[in-house]
Amino acid sequence: MFEKASKLLQKSETSSPEIFYIMNELKTNSSTRINEKFYGSNFITCKNKLSVSNINTIKKDFDMFYNTALTYLSNHFDYEYSPLKFLEPLCLKSNLLLYQDIAKIIEVFGLVDVISLDEIFEEFTIIKPAIPTVSFKNNLTVYEKWLELLSIQKLKNFEILLEFILSIPPSNSHVERVFSMMKLKWTDVRNRCSVDLIKNELMITLNILPSTNSSCTDFVNLVKDDTAFLNAVKSQKKYNWKN
Length: 243
Prior knowledge:
By secondary structure, this protein is mostly helical. Helices cover about 60% and strands about 0% of the residues.
Protein backbone atom coordinates (compact mmCIF):
# COMPACT_ATOMS: atom_id res chain seq x y z
CA MET A 1 0.00 0.00 0.00
CA PHE A 2 2.71 2.49 0.98
CA GLU A 3 5.06 1.22 -1.71
CA LYS A 4 2.31 1.58 -4.31
CA ALA A 5 1.69 5.21 -3.34
CA SER A 6 5.41 5.97 -3.37
CA LYS A 7 5.87 4.48 -6.84
CA LEU A 8 2.84 6.34 -8.21
CA LEU A 9 4.17 9.66 -6.93
CA GLN A 10 7.54 9.02 -8.57
CA LYS A 11 6.22 7.93 -11.98
CA SER A 12 7.06 10.28 -14.82
CA GLU A 13 3.45 10.00 -16.06
CA THR A 14 1.96 11.19 -12.77
CA SER A 15 0.39 14.65 -12.95
CA SER A 16 -0.28 17.30 -10.31
CA PRO A 17 -4.08 16.62 -10.22
CA GLU A 18 -3.31 13.05 -9.13
CA ILE A 19 -1.28 14.00 -6.04
CA PHE A 20 -4.25 14.55 -3.75
CA TYR A 21 -6.02 11.49 -5.18
CA ILE A 22 -3.02 9.27 -4.40
CA MET A 23 -2.45 10.73 -0.92
CA ASN A 24 -6.13 10.60 -0.01
CA GLU A 25 -6.39 6.99 -1.18
CA LEU A 26 -3.40 6.10 1.02
CA LYS A 27 -4.98 7.77 4.05
CA THR A 28 -8.37 6.15 3.40
CA ASN A 29 -6.87 2.68 2.98
CA SER A 30 -4.92 3.03 6.23
CA SER A 31 -8.03 4.15 8.12
CA THR A 32 -10.10 1.33 6.62
CA ARG A 33 -7.57 -1.28 7.74
CA ILE A 34 -7.82 0.03 11.30
CA ASN A 35 -11.62 0.21 11.30
CA GLU A 36 -12.05 -3.22 9.70
CA LYS A 37 -9.33 -4.80 11.85
CA PHE A 38 -7.58 -6.05 8.72
CA TYR A 39 -3.97 -7.01 9.27
CA GLY A 40 -3.18 -8.79 6.02
CA SER A 41 -3.80 -12.22 4.56
CA ASN A 42 -0.67 -13.70 6.17
CA PHE A 43 -1.99 -12.83 9.62
CA ILE A 44 -5.36 -14.44 8.83
CA THR A 45 -3.59 -17.60 7.66
CA CYS A 46 -1.22 -17.85 10.62
CA LYS A 47 -3.34 -16.65 13.54
CA ASN A 48 -4.74 -20.13 14.26
CA LYS A 49 -1.20 -21.21 15.09
CA LEU A 50 -0.67 -18.35 17.55
CA SER A 51 -1.63 -17.93 21.16
CA VAL A 52 -4.25 -15.38 22.16
CA SER A 53 -1.63 -13.16 23.77
CA ASN A 54 0.52 -13.21 20.61
CA ILE A 55 -2.51 -12.39 18.45
CA ASN A 56 -3.40 -9.42 20.66
CA THR A 57 0.21 -8.20 20.63
CA ILE A 58 0.37 -8.38 16.83
CA LYS A 59 -2.95 -6.56 16.48
CA LYS A 60 -1.75 -3.87 18.86
CA ASP A 61 1.49 -3.44 16.89
CA PHE A 62 -0.40 -3.19 13.60
CA ASP A 63 -2.82 -0.61 15.02
CA MET A 64 0.07 1.42 16.40
CA PHE A 65 1.82 1.29 13.02
CA TYR A 66 -1.24 2.46 11.07
CA ASN A 67 -2.04 5.19 13.59
CA THR A 68 1.56 6.41 13.44
CA ALA A 69 1.38 6.39 9.65
CA LEU A 70 -1.86 8.41 9.69
CA THR A 71 -0.33 10.93 12.09
CA TYR A 72 2.73 11.25 9.87
CA LEU A 73 0.58 11.77 6.76
CA SER A 74 -1.53 14.42 8.48
CA ASN A 75 1.55 16.26 9.75
CA HIS A 76 3.33 16.30 6.39
CA PHE A 77 0.48 16.66 3.89
CA ASP A 78 -2.29 19.24 4.10
CA TYR A 79 -5.50 17.29 3.53
CA GLU A 80 -7.76 20.19 4.50
CA TYR A 81 -6.48 23.32 2.79
CA SER A 82 -3.96 22.24 0.16
CA PRO A 83 -4.65 23.83 -3.26
CA LEU A 84 -3.94 20.39 -4.73
CA LYS A 85 -7.24 19.23 -3.27
CA PHE A 86 -9.12 21.32 -5.83
CA LEU A 87 -7.22 19.74 -8.73
CA GLU A 88 -8.45 16.20 -8.09
CA PRO A 89 -11.47 16.46 -10.46
CA LEU A 90 -9.03 17.07 -13.33
CA CYS A 91 -7.78 13.49 -12.88
CA LEU A 92 -10.85 12.37 -14.84
CA LYS A 93 -11.05 9.23 -12.72
CA SER A 94 -14.83 9.49 -12.99
CA ASN A 95 -17.36 11.48 -14.99
CA LEU A 96 -18.07 13.88 -12.11
CA LEU A 97 -16.13 16.89 -13.39
CA LEU A 98 -18.34 19.96 -12.94
CA TYR A 99 -18.05 23.53 -14.12
CA GLN A 100 -17.96 24.60 -10.46
CA ASP A 101 -14.75 22.55 -10.11
CA ILE A 102 -13.17 24.41 -13.02
CA ALA A 103 -14.23 27.81 -11.70
CA LYS A 104 -12.85 27.00 -8.22
CA ILE A 105 -9.48 25.97 -9.66
CA ILE A 106 -9.27 29.23 -11.62
CA GLU A 107 -10.04 31.18 -8.44
CA VAL A 108 -7.67 29.27 -6.13
CA PHE A 109 -4.72 29.45 -8.52
CA GLY A 110 -5.23 33.13 -9.36
CA LEU A 111 -6.04 32.67 -13.04
CA VAL A 112 -9.12 34.89 -13.14
CA ASP A 113 -7.30 37.61 -15.08
CA VAL A 114 -6.08 35.27 -17.82
CA ILE A 115 -9.04 32.90 -18.21
CA SER A 116 -12.58 34.00 -19.07
CA LEU A 117 -15.11 32.23 -16.84
CA ASP A 118 -17.80 32.82 -19.47
CA GLU A 119 -15.75 31.43 -22.33
CA ILE A 120 -14.50 28.41 -20.41
CA PHE A 121 -18.12 27.58 -19.50
CA GLU A 122 -18.96 27.46 -23.21
CA GLU A 123 -15.89 25.28 -23.79
CA PHE A 124 -16.93 23.00 -20.92
CA THR A 125 -20.34 22.40 -22.52
CA ILE A 126 -18.51 21.26 -25.66
CA ILE A 127 -16.35 18.62 -23.96
CA LYS A 128 -18.86 17.57 -21.26
CA PRO A 129 -20.57 14.85 -23.36
CA ALA A 130 -17.19 13.21 -24.03
CA ILE A 131 -15.98 13.22 -20.41
CA PRO A 132 -17.71 9.96 -19.32
CA THR A 133 -16.16 8.05 -22.23
CA VAL A 134 -12.67 9.43 -21.71
CA SER A 135 -12.70 9.15 -17.91
CA PHE A 136 -13.12 5.38 -17.99
CA LYS A 137 -10.17 4.81 -20.31
CA ASN A 138 -7.90 3.57 -17.54
CA ASN A 139 -5.11 2.79 -19.98
CA LEU A 140 -4.62 6.52 -20.64
CA THR A 141 -2.67 8.94 -18.46
CA VAL A 142 -4.25 12.21 -17.31
CA TYR A 143 -2.24 13.99 -20.00
CA GLU A 144 -3.55 11.66 -22.71
CA LYS A 145 -7.15 11.96 -21.52
CA TRP A 146 -7.03 15.75 -21.74
CA LEU A 147 -5.25 15.60 -25.07
CA GLU A 148 -8.15 13.54 -26.40
CA LEU A 149 -10.71 16.02 -25.05
CA LEU A 150 -8.84 19.03 -26.40
CA SER A 151 -8.68 17.44 -29.84
CA ILE A 152 -12.47 17.81 -30.15
CA GLN A 153 -12.21 21.51 -30.88
CA LYS A 154 -9.98 24.53 -30.28
CA LEU A 155 -10.50 25.35 -26.59
CA LYS A 156 -8.35 28.37 -25.82
CA ASN A 157 -9.18 28.79 -22.14
CA PHE A 158 -8.87 25.10 -21.30
CA GLU A 159 -5.48 25.08 -23.00
CA ILE A 160 -4.31 27.97 -20.80
CA LEU A 161 -5.67 26.27 -17.67
CA LEU A 162 -4.15 22.87 -18.39
CA GLU A 163 -0.85 24.33 -19.56
CA PHE A 164 -0.52 25.94 -16.12
CA ILE A 165 -1.87 23.09 -13.97
CA LEU A 166 -0.10 20.22 -15.72
CA SER A 167 3.22 22.05 -15.57
CA ILE A 168 3.16 21.84 -11.75
CA PRO A 169 5.63 19.05 -10.86
CA PRO A 170 3.98 16.34 -8.72
CA SER A 171 7.29 15.52 -7.02
CA ASN A 172 11.03 16.18 -7.27
CA SER A 173 11.64 12.85 -9.02
CA HIS A 174 11.60 14.48 -12.46
CA VAL A 175 14.25 17.00 -11.40
CA GLU A 176 16.39 14.23 -9.94
CA ARG A 177 16.00 12.26 -13.17
CA VAL A 178 17.12 15.26 -15.21
CA PHE A 179 20.28 15.69 -13.13
CA SER A 180 21.02 11.99 -13.41
CA MET A 181 20.65 12.08 -17.20
CA MET A 182 22.70 15.28 -17.38
CA LYS A 183 25.55 13.51 -15.60
CA LEU A 184 25.41 10.71 -18.17
CA LYS A 185 25.63 13.19 -21.05
CA TRP A 186 28.16 15.59 -19.52
CA THR A 187 30.90 13.04 -18.91
CA ASP A 188 34.63 13.60 -18.38
CA VAL A 189 35.29 12.96 -22.08
CA ARG A 190 32.64 15.55 -23.04
CA ASN A 191 33.50 18.17 -20.43
CA ARG A 192 34.14 20.86 -23.04
CA CYS A 193 30.61 20.74 -24.41
CA SER A 194 28.66 23.96 -23.93
CA VAL A 195 25.77 24.26 -21.51
CA ASP A 196 23.40 24.89 -24.42
CA LEU A 197 24.42 21.64 -26.12
CA ILE A 198 23.73 19.54 -23.02
CA LYS A 199 20.50 21.47 -22.46
CA ASN A 200 19.28 20.75 -26.00
CA GLU A 201 20.24 17.08 -25.77
CA LEU A 202 18.22 16.78 -22.56
CA MET A 203 15.25 18.60 -24.10
CA ILE A 204 15.22 16.13 -27.00
CA THR A 205 15.63 13.12 -24.73
CA LEU A 206 13.03 14.18 -22.17
CA ASN A 207 10.45 15.89 -24.37
CA ILE A 208 10.56 15.06 -28.07
CA LEU A 209 11.18 11.32 -27.93
CA PRO A 210 8.72 10.45 -25.10
CA SER A 211 5.98 12.76 -26.39
CA THR A 212 6.02 11.11 -29.82
CA ASN A 213 6.72 7.58 -28.57
CA SER A 214 9.76 7.61 -30.83
CA SER A 215 12.99 5.68 -30.57
CA CYS A 216 16.46 7.10 -31.21
CA THR A 217 16.33 5.48 -34.67
CA ASP A 218 13.07 7.29 -35.41
CA PHE A 219 14.68 10.59 -34.41
CA VAL A 220 17.66 9.97 -36.71
CA ASN A 221 15.32 9.27 -39.61
CA LEU A 222 13.42 12.45 -38.78
CA VAL A 223 16.43 14.78 -38.91
CA LYS A 224 18.83 13.08 -41.33
CA ASP A 225 17.61 15.22 -44.25
CA ASP A 226 17.34 18.46 -42.26
CA THR A 227 20.30 20.41 -43.68
CA ALA A 228 20.06 23.36 -41.27
CA PHE A 229 19.93 21.01 -38.29
CA LEU A 230 22.88 18.93 -39.49
CA ASN A 231 24.99 22.02 -40.21
CA ALA A 232 24.32 23.26 -36.67
CA VAL A 233 25.34 19.89 -35.25
CA LYS A 234 28.61 19.90 -37.22
CA SER A 235 29.51 23.48 -36.33
CA GLN A 236 32.03 24.45 -33.66
CA LYS A 237 29.52 26.63 -31.79
CA LYS A 238 28.73 23.85 -29.37
CA TYR A 239 32.22 24.10 -27.89
CA ASN A 240 32.83 27.17 -25.76
CA TRP A 241 36.59 26.75 -25.88
CA LYS A 242 36.62 27.05 -29.69
CA ASN A 243 34.66 30.33 -29.75
